[in-house]
Amino acid sequence: MTRYIFITGGVVSSLGKGIASAALGALLQARGYRVRLRKLDPYLNVDPGTMSPYQHGEVYVTDDGAETDLDLGHYERFTGVSARQSDNITTGRVYQTILEKERRGDFLGATIQVIPHVTDAIKDFVLGDPGEVDFVLCEIGGTVGDIEGLPFFEAIRQLGQELGRDRAIFIHLTLLPYIPSAGEMKTKPTQHSVKELRSIGIQPDILLCRCDRPIPEDEKRKIALFCNVRSESVIEARDVSHIYDVPLAYHGEGLDHEVLHHFGMTGAPPPDLSKWQEISDKLKRPDGEVTIALVGKYTVLPDAYKSVMEALHHGGLANDVKVNIELIDSTPLDDPSASLDVLDGVNGIILPGGFGQRGARGKMRAARYARERDIPCFGICFGMQLAVVEAARNLANIQGAGTTEFDEPSDALVGFIEQWTKGNQKEVRSKDGDLGGTMRLGAYPAILTPGSKVAEAYGTTTIEERHRHRYEVNFHYKEQIEASGMLFSGMSPDGLLPEIVELKDHPWFIGVQFHPELKSRPFEPHPLFASFISAAVHQSRLV
Ligand code: GLN
Q: I want to staple 83 with a disulfide (CB 3.0 to 4.6 A). Which of 72, 218, 517, 534 is the partner?
């Protein structure tokens, strides 16, 4: 029997609902249960693929090619369960599906309404395609009271009724602010948030209360009384130093126990949290540290680089070091006279993915800086493309090298991909086609050159990694580029699309067309991130 856990949020956004959901998933897994996590996003975009990273943070890509909310990245990192297209839905997608059906005439003359048609579509999504799991955890984006969220709250309310108490539970995440002038922690915002939830028919079973200090027992009793929950179900969710401490912290406060208590599943053996304890200990007692410069243009919103930053920390775990990440805005570095001394002293440079002209030259200057000074450098997607353009111009002497993404270069080292193969199928694109959902998306295999640095890092010559790009390095320049010392060490199986480049005479300079950060997990650091941080550790010992 599959049980459903609905996680909602109140008071303010950014309380960490995604991490709370992921951590609960991990705790249930540690008790031997199988879990699947889903995200219901009330905004109107069909998916976040066309949204600016400034608005939405990173777009997380699944193996099956869905462009999804970054919370799915937390789910994967905490539980190791690969997310799928069917694990993220938005209002836009719900309406798209309904309106397509309406045009086909599938509703047989009915008037299409929010209740029941939209709510039914949401319920179908929640219940559909769960796989063999014991728990489906569904996080509702936004906060209770948001207008766009109403159909989602109504749908989960109905599900609460239909599934019954022994198959559904509601967890509400709120904030207990501490007011210094009063010297008190305030429960009123939580009371109001629960009142709002109850006014739409949802009585939360568990309150997960974010706070920066312990909640006094009296306050817990008060919250329980006013919000109509057991006082054991008022769970303290105090700030912790690292997100990977969250499962241990929430377990300590009894979150997983309360969930199982609700379902009458007590008596189960305690969870095995040894791997979380190990991670927590490693993070607290690193054996050294390295500093990595992350050079990109979305640095004002670090969420734009969420998975890259997490993967760097995983690389740190693999090498027992703390990774300090310096976010460096590439935009001012576009100016050729701007000093690059912000990069002085770093042990590695990472050039993440991106789009468009602004900040691109800054990234190329950072690539050159790393190349000429033997600093470990990792280019990802756009970062790789720009590193190739830089090497083409300054190493291979192809003066007119550039990318057609924002230029009309005489030598299109990076160009629009018009067609490629996916499995047995041919995918075709045109430059004036739709932007949404049309990139080369999801998992594709690549073949690595035996004996190359990447093959050594991966320990194999066949890999599969997730992609999200419209442009591609032009393999017609392979010979010229390779003659200058930059090797094409990974190609698509048909030999047409360069997937990886590496510099021969450099301690560690690798560019990849895909997004390895999306598959890195704390317990299985991605081999390229582990290898990159290892090179950074080596570099730090040389200076
Ligand atoms: N803008 C580049 C492309 O579309 C790179 C995309 C990325 O970095 N994800 O190919």
A: 72
Evaluate: CB of 355 within 6 angstroms of ligand 1.
yes
CA 112 to chain centre: 35
pLDDT at 343 over 80: yes
* 543 pLDDT more than 80: no
C-alpha distances out from residue 134 to 1, 23, 28, 267, Å: 6, 16, 9, 17
Beta bridge mates, 476: none
pLDDT in tens, 414-426: 999 999 999 889 9
Q: Which residues contact 341 (CB under 8 A, 6 or more apart)?
A: none
- Residue nearest (by alpha carbon) to ligand 1 atom 1: 355
Collapsed DSSP state (helix, strand, coil) of residue 206: strand
- What per-residue confidence (pLDDT) applies to 268? 78
Q: What would the pLDDT profile of 246-278 be if each residue is shown by its tens digit?
A: 999 999 999 999 999 999 998 878 899 999 999
154 is a catalytic site residue: no
Mean pLDDT across 507-523: 98
CB 279 within 8 Å of CB 26 = no
Measure the CA–CA gap between 440 and 419, rounded to whole angstroms.
9
- Classify strands 184-185 and 178-179 as parallel, antiparallel or unpaired: antiparallel
- What integer pLDDT is reported at residue 129 of this predicted model? 83
**Domains of the chain, start order:** 3-279 (3.40.50.300), 286-415+472-542 (3.40.50.880)
pLDDT band at residue 542 using 50, 70 and 90 as cut-offs = confident
Report how far residue 91's alpha carbon sits from residue 95's, in angstroms, rounded to the nearest whole number: 6
Residue 502 in contact with ligand 1 by CB distance below 6 A = no
Ligand 1 atom 8: residue of nearest CA: 353
Rounded CA gap, 467 and 444, in Å? Answer: 7
**Alpha helical stretches, state H, 68-149:** 71-79, 91-104, 119-127
Q: HSE on the CB side for 267, CA within 13 Å?
A: 3
479 in active site: no
Instruction: Report the nearest-CA residue for atom 7 of ligand 1.
Output: 353
405 lines ligand 1 (CB under 6 A): yes
